[in-house]
Amino acid sequence: MPIVQHMDIFPIHVPVSSSLRSINFYLVQSGQSLILIDAGYNNDDCRKALVDTLKQNEFALKDLTHIILTHHHIDHAGLVNCLTAEHPIPVYAHPLSFPRLKRASVFLQMRIQFFQELYETMGCGQQGKKQIEHLKKTMKENESQKITAELVEVGENFGDHFEVLEVPGHAPDQIALYDRKQERLFAGDLLISHISSNALVEPDENGKRIPSLLIHIDSLKKCLSLSLEQVYSGHGKVIQQPKELIQKRLDGIEKKAERFLTLIKGGKRTANDIAETYYKDVYDQQFPLVMSEVIGHLDYLEQREKIQKEKVHGIWRYTSS
Ligand SMILES: [Zn+2]
């Protein structure tokens, strides 16, 4: 266990109009280090918020010693390129972040192939095809967003500042940084005060589907077992005494799974049928999120032996046990 330094936290909360409410990242001073945990979006609001927070606390950009990313998502890694171009410091992340942050083309091609097969086998038809076209387009458009900084693999401890915990589910590469002494956790998007986190369906490095919701549940349970006073999230408010909220999120998964089970018992057979029936307009608006939700909860019901699946003409059909 590391000898934990005294730490000062300077939160950077950038308000946004979406349901996320804010994009959060954190400056942490610990001993001689000034660590940036996550790096917001690559936009003026996030850049200004960081510069202002540095200035207000009598720091400058050149005082930053490390950047750590809780996961690879674009609203957590946005400023990395512009910060490290001006002030080259190492960027620490989980190894599973690397192909995603570097936008490795072999990996991205495989990922598109993965979603194509996934949506076909889940019965998504036209909507699935539309999403694949969108993925192909954004793969080209986002080429310029690849992280150019030197990436360093995080270990079990981050110096004598934090213990590093793997908390995959929302993203396969998600980590949380635990300050055991002061019972604080920087948890990325594992736990958000005002909304449940999406356990996004993703392939592993071999193109096999990761059971995102099942591992998200394990990550939440891992947090329940820690002594925790505060959780510093990627969005929304800092969470005080988080155990009740973690339990609420776990109960929420159980409840949603029960609703999907009722739909299956009522004759809905494919993930796509369940998604369209349950989410209505949101199905079109947020197709990839909705499919992740449905597929994740079907995994959960399968694991609990409440349903089984069978492939008929290339499409998974679910029935209650
Ligand atoms: Zn995220």
UniProtKB/TrEMBL annotation:
Q: What is this protein called?
A: Glyoxylase-like metal-dependent hydrolase (Beta-lactamase superfamily II)
Please state every residue range assigned to the domain named Metallo-beta-lactamase. 22-235
Short name of any one Pfam family annotated for the protein: Lactamase_B
Q: Which Gene3D superfamilies match?
A: Ribonuclease Z/Hydroxyacylglutathione hydrolase-like (3.60.15.10)
Superkingdom, natural source: Bacteria
